[in-house]
Design brief:
The complex is a heterotrimer of chains A (242), B (370) and C (366).
Chain A (H helix, E strand, L loop, with lengths): L5 E12 L2 E12 L3 E6 L5 H8 L7 E6 L2 E2 L4 H6 L1 E4 L11 H11 L4 H14 L15 H12 L6 E5 L7 H16 L3 E5 L3 H6 L2 E6 L2 E6 L1 H8 L4 H9 L1
Parallel strand pairs in A: 3-8, 3-9, 6-7, 7-8
Antiparallel strand pairs in A: 1-2, 1-4, 4-5, 9-10
Helix pairs in contact in A: 3-4, 5-6, 8-9
Chain B lengths: L1 H16 L3 H19 L7 E7 L4 H11 L4 E6 L3 H10 L4 E5 L3 H8 L1 E9 L3 H26 L9 E8 L6 H32 L1 H6 L5 H29 L9 H25 L3 H17 L12 H7 L3 H15 L3 H25 L5
Parallel strand pairs in B: 1-2, 1-3
Antiparallel strand pairs in B: 3-4
Chain C lengths: L1 H13 L1 H21 L7 E7 L4 H12 L3 E7 L3 H9 L4 E5 L3 H8 L2 E8 L3 H25 L6 E9 L6 H32 L1 H6 L5 H29 L9 H25 L3 H18 L12 H7 L3 H15 L7 H26 L1
Parallel strand pairs in C: 1-2, 1-3
Antiparallel strand pairs in C: 3-4
Helix pairs in contact in C: 1-9, 2-7, 2-9, 7-9, 7-10, 7-11, 7-13, 9-10, 10-13, 10-14, 13-14
Chain lengths: 242, 370, 366
Amino acid sequence: MNEREKIIEVKELVKKFGNFTANNKLTFDVFKGEIFGFLGANGAGKTTAIKILCGLSAPTSGFAKVAGWDVGKYPNKVKSNIGYMSQKFSLYNDMTVKENFRFYGGIYGLPGKEISNKTSYYLEKLKMEHTQNVVLNEIPLGWKQKLAFSVANIHDPKVVFLDEPTGGVDPVTRRQFWEMIYETADKGTTVFVTTHYMDEAEYCERVSIMSEGIIEALDTPAKLKEHYGVDTMNDVFIKIAR
Amino acid sequence: MRTLLYILQKEFIQIFRDKSMLPLIFIVPVMQLLVLSYTATFEIKDVDLIVLDNDRTGTSRDLVVSFSGSPFYNFNGYAENFESAQQLIKTGDADQLLVIEPDFEKNLINENSGEIQLITDAINGNAASMMVAYAQSIIGDFNKNLIINLNPTQQIGIPIQIDALFWYNPELNYITYMVPGILVLLVTVIGMFLGSMNLVKEKEIGTIEQINVTPIKKYQFIAGKLIPFWIIANIDLAIGLLLAFLVFNIPVMGSVSLLFAVASIYLIGILSIGLVISTLTNTMQQAMFISWFFLVIFILMSGLFTPIESMPDWAQIINHANPVSYFIKINRMIMLKGSGFQDILDELIILTAFAVSLFSFSILRYRKTV
Amino acid sequence: MKAFIKKEFLHIFRDYRSMVILFGMPLVMVLLFGFAITNDITNARIAVLDNSKDVVTRQIIQKLVSSGYFILENNITNQNEIENVFTRGKVKEVIVFESDFANKLITGGNANIQLILDASDPNTANIVTSYTSGIIASYSMELMKQRSIAPVNINIESRMYYNPELKSVYMFVPGIITVLLMLVSAMMTSISITREKEMGTMEALLVSPLKPFQIIIGKVMPYMVLSFINLVVILILARFVFMMPVAGSLTLLLAESLLFILMSLALGILISTISRTQQQAMLLSMFALMLPTILLSGFIFPIENMPAILQYLSHIMPSKWFIIIVKNIMLKGTGILYFWKETLIIIVMTMFFIVMSIKKFKIRLD
């Protein structure tokens, strides 16, 4: 384990909004190809931390490095090396599947040829070739989420951040979604995922649980269950969050 | 540069896919130009005139004839007495009342001076001053002829002859004056509204978040938002100029390319204002209200309807910061008088300064961070 | 019911951006229209092409400049410069004295002055011409007196009714009142009801024990109050900033305004029953309500000068009738006898909108 390359390094990271401390001295590492679960109750400070790691917001103090770049100093370098998919669906509903791929591929600087290769690769994998000229509005939510995940991966990022990617999606599609996540991780891409579904937490290699701005626990699901003496991640979560 | 092209491609796809956009961009402006040119007029014609003739002589009748012969006046007949005449003004059936005092003719001949009274409904102060100016010029002409007729032996007549020439608009057509201003209004509305709506829309539906985590540069994104509407507004201007020529017979006297060059600079400024508004707001409704608020102020003070020189000093000072007023002035100069580059240089420099600073400010205001 | 109305008030007052606009708008509009929109020509810039440069021409120029209407921008020396002066844009009028002016006046008896106007703005050109000719004519009269020619003169005593100082606020205040009552009552109501529909909170209200009409009253009450406050603010501004009193009965004015507010609310409710989204409601209010209210009501632009079709169209604008009523009460000080017809038209329109919205509402429930 120790030889694994660190792709995210966070040390003593603090983010304050006025008097309110949203993130209090977060310290953790995430490795290459890992699926890292980032859990916490609503308001625990998850979103703030993700925003900092994505270069959207500067830390108040402390230090975070993503894909080898300091997020506070080189946010744009960080952004080139990460993919992001948020709980709010964020592809363009009034554009076709193909147009969305082309746009996001384009702004990540991919050559035109590669964009079309990637587009057909992903559509084939999702068995959605027939939808390439359909406007996104007319595609069911579950499919759209899978598309959004593919788009987030189009530039082969080193890390992909998923902020509650499966909210409102049916169990079958969720299952398929997680298969995609495994596949991505197998190729060496790190997956940083937040979720409220505790069964999904079980799928992660390691899980951190935040509460009131502090990381209360960080380990593999098995060890966490052992440590807290419970059978499910759900019980672990309830113990910590309370 | 390639990134910018991808952004532009995306913006154009979105604009043209939205079915409500096309009429908004191309039909509404045409309608506005046609309707506004006819409605937005301070032209005063067909003044409803009522006459109370207390003299009833040849001279008084002649005076009334010179009024009824004027294209500006509708002669609505004689009033019985002062009360009934006043009543007509009160009910709004007459705009102006001409009272010819008793012994008007006799006094003119014997004492060289006759009295008349002119009563004007002045609720609309602007219209009232126009009506009085019309009446004065009719009476002045009548007076002149009177002098000549009453002094047949003197062949001299009036010592100083005045002869007025109206350049650029010899028929004093109000539409000719308004159309260049309305064209400015159209591109301003398009630029400011669409410019502010577009970015806010991405905020409201959440796609902006996805954009923010990409390595797009701020200026690329802002330019990508600005250029499509910049092109559209220029096309609207072209359509407007064509209509001005075909429908209203107002050709561009000056250089068309100069006009578009100015418009292009001006639009960068206006679109940037729209973008700044959209960075300040969270919903389309707010963006619309705020753009509307600024538009009303900009337009009312722009000199579109009334000359800026007539405004009080403080308003003229505020107007130095009103880009709309500069472009309306320039557009009228180029379209109606054929003014050239040298003539508009001062205003153009200011507009350029506006464009550069507002565009920079909109880039500065747009934060990719939260 | 009381709790419900309170909630509505809270909703509105919490949106401070809209509040600023609602109360800032009337202020700014009254001030702008009152001070900035005026056709008064005070400092018209003129240029002189004096081909004679003698005592008489200098006297005439002196008279023009000292009148206060004109500023002498420059003296030009030849005909070709006129074009340049105009294209540069500042100068409105060039006064051309023919050569040998004084000499011709004395020996020949008369001399010519040519006024060349930049008529691209026809109104200004007209007014500037009438000022200039007036001043020159009075100089002419003096000359005639000196020569003992009978200088026949018609004295005009000009009186301005209802607005002796020709203040432009007098014209605009009734219009601004109308536009704002319309804006707040119709536009805001329609948007707020549609928003509730769009967000699904309307359903929650409909399943509550409140009766539908109670819900509607709760929704419109705050806007009614807001409209009224706006009205009072404008009247106070008009009275104390612009010294524009209400010549007629204040009670009557408030009563008529209440009627107009009622009509606007009914119209707003009707719009909200037609539109499905806020944006639709917004566009409908904007293009079907605000623009016609501003353009076709006689608020800024006199209706009489518009083409016939537009004049007919103006008859169906409720605002047109209300503006007539307000002008009558505020400026002419007339009573209900002078505008009972207009009042009746608004009452009929109100009924029509109410009936229509009830009908639409029922269809929706079925």
